Amino acid sequence: MRALQYLTVGAAPELVDISTPIPGPGEVLLRVTAAGVCHSDQFIMDLPADQYIYGLPLTLGHEGAGTVESWGAGVTGLQVGDAMLVYGPWGCGRCYTCSQGKENYCEVAAERGIQPPGLGAPGAMAEFLLIDDPRHLVPLGGLDPVASVSLTDAGLTPYHAIKQSLPKLVPGSTAVVIGVGGLGHVGVEILRALTAATIVAIDSAESKLELALEVGADYAMLPGDDAEAQIRSLTAGKGAAVVFDFVGAPVTTGFASRVVGVGGEIAIVGVGVGTVDVGFFSTPWDSAARAPYWGSRSELMEVVELARAGKIHVEVEEFPLSNAPDAYQRLRAGTLRGRAVIVPDPMHAAGDPT
Asked: Which pTM does this prediction carry?
């Protein structure tokens, strides 16, 4: 089968031919129908050799959708052709957090070497994808896999971050969304679907500000001093109840610290190196900062239901697997509108899993 792999630290990913995996006991083989492109992929490929921990070669793609092709001994309840989304943050399935479906916070994943597909385990940018356990599959129902595959991260990650902040997002409150890219624009939609808060979107690209307004933001602003002043004015000087930073760079976390209000929250969602200093002389009274990661299995099911009800959708641009490297070039250049999605090439879509 063909796959997009990261082969050499510092080099661009390449299309290669590799063996199709065979499911062992408890495993499921999916025929991939769609795979999402994420800034996290670029982040790990930009790491220097002494910080890179994901193994080589690495088949990319931690957002995956596919149809059930086959399974190993002990797997029940599936049928060939069942359409599925892949829950990405795999855990042990047995610790306290995993027992709640919060495998994104598995207590032993790191020490046992359990890694997500595309972020250590072979990912979805291939013609077939091996799933370690059927509990990591969520039925797609009638949803389109290309339009829905990014719900597994671009939908789940902002949903998890926003859900924790719902008690603060009461009518009359203000939510600030920094970065309206692949995750941020879905974050705006989720805020609009779940809250009555005023939504302010911040981005350095005019096209992304236009997208933010299209999907539900009340205000869209370029970053800078003027944006800080406008947010203070909109909130009668109080500042934002919650700031969701989907970039995570020092400049954006600094901005978040300056616009959050008393008793407010800053959620650093983006995979950047920015931090927030919390203290008497650095942030407003009783404000807090947190760094949520991905989301739980039950939350992915909730995200799917939001999509099924038409409350959220992911803006996508489609690329065939043969052009997948181009999608990463567009991601780096910042010219994608929403999320890039990789799909099998038509001539290979009916390939034999051998």
From this structure: 0.95
